[in-house]
Specification:
The chain has 14 helices and no strands. About 85% of the residues lie in helices and about 0% in strands.
Length: about 400
């Protein structure tokens, strides 16, 4: 006896079965979502640890590439004998940049790092002295104005509150400095793996810089195998634009902050400010953060100087203010120009977002990353409008409409 199957009934049964099965899978996935995300996090951390030398190599190669390109095109390719030998200008350019890099690292290790460490250790050691001297100043001030403040002091114990708060401030400052110094020492003692990754990253970056054209061609071949030719051309144009934004910001901000730090050191040395090198490093490093950097760096600089000499702290405040005005009005625009092309709102937004997610590094890298994301979004909108043959001109947009 031949059994006839109702195809319509079979189709509905299959749909019902798939719906129930997918619902069960979705329910079980929700119940085990935490374990799944934890597994992904663990695997991502492992992969990141394994690939850290490669990631470091890509970052090093990207930072050094402008210098390699400049030496190759402006120096070694203009020397006939060197230019005639294939790949020799590139190799010499890379070696020259590496000599500059290693020389800079050696200078920091030999001259800068020991003095900064000794300055932090000295500040930690002198905290009790700063406490006593500040309390003496408060006592002298209270005695000078005792006739006017004696009644209020008897009622509210103003002097006692001031001394208590000063003691708490200095105690916390001492703990903070001890914590920073101890972490620096522990970091120096536990950087074996970091040194190994850095050395390996330097070696890998050498090959990345030497064969960068082949890597570019490989990436382009992959893109053309996946996307249409016009889409690949658009992606290449966007890549060049993103490279210009990111590269100009990173390199330009580094040069700008280095100059500001050097000028700060010269000025503080002339003013005979103690811990001039430590303060200059703080100013230079925090200057890498747009907008908020000058204020972030000025606060610890003034506090450190105030504990040593209130008068010098006033001079440091005035000097840093003048220096930051020079940077904001003259030096910064000359070096950076319109490197990111963001409005002040988006710059502040990127700093807050990056700082909240990744701390100080996020505050620095948030600006170019957000600039690249906004640029990509604008290009994507332009491509979609172009597909629809829609053109929008600025003169067609009116705020009053």
């Amino acid at each position: 006896m031949k059994i006839k199957l109702d195809k319509q009934y079979l189709k509905y049964s299959l749909y019902a079965f798939l719906t129930i099965a997918l619902s069960i899978v979705f329910y079980l996935s929700l119940g085990n979502l935490g374990y799944f995300l934890q597994w992904i996090s663990i695997q991502t951390s492992r992969l990141k640890k394994v690939l850290s030398p490669v990631i470091m190599a890509i970052f090093i190669a990207y930072l050094l590439n402008p210098g390699v390109r400049w030496f190759e095109t402006q120096v070694y390719n203009k020397i006939g004998r060197i230019k005639s030998i294939r790949k020799l200008p590139r190799v010499l350019s890379i070696l020259t940049i590496y000599l500059f890099l290693f020389g800079l690292i050696a200078m920091v290790i030999v001259f800068v790092a020991p003095q900064i460490g000794s300055n932090i250790a000295e500040i930690s050691r002198r905290v009790p002295e700063y406490i006593n001297s500040t309390i003496d100043i408060v006592d002298e001030w209270s005695n000078k104005w005792s006739n006017e403040l004696s009644a209020a002091n008897n009622v509210y114990n103003i002097t006692g509150h001031i001394e208590k708060n000063i003691n708490e401030i200095f105690t916390n400052a001492s703990k903070l400095l001890d914590y920073i110094f101890n972490n620096i020492v522990m970091g120096v003692m536990n950087i074996t793996s970091g040194i190994f990754n850095f050395i390996l990253g330097i070696i890998i970056s050498f090959y990345l810089l030497g064969d960068k054209e082949s890597f570019k061609r490989g990436i382009e071949r992959i893109l053309r195998a996946i996307f249409h030719g016009k889409t690949v051309d658009r992606l290449k144009d966007f890549g060049r634009e993103a490279d210009t934004i990111f590269g100009k910001f990173i390199v330009g901000k580094f040069i700008d902050s280095f100059i500001i730090g050097a000028l700060c050191f010269v000025g503080l040395t002339i003013l005979k400010i103690r811990y001039a090198l430590l303060i200059s490093v703080i100013i230079g490093v925090t200057n890498m953060i747009p907008y908020f950097g000058p204020f972030i760096g000025a606060v610890p600089a003034v506090i450190i100087t105030f504990f040593d000499s209130p008068i010098n702290a006033l001079w440091v405040t005035i000097f840093i203010f003048i220096l930051q005005q020079f940077d904001g009005l003259i030096l910064g625009p000359k070096i950076l120009g319109e490197s990111v092309g963001l409005s002040p709102f988006w710059i502040i937004f990127s700093i807050v977002l990056g700082g909240g997610l990744y701390g100080v590094i996020g505050m620095f890298l948030g600006v170019p990353v957000v600039a690249i994301v906004i640029t990509f979004a604008n290009r994507l909108i332009d491509w979609q409008l172009e597909k629809k043959s829609i053109k929008i001109y600025e003169e067609d947009i009116r705020l009053d409409k």
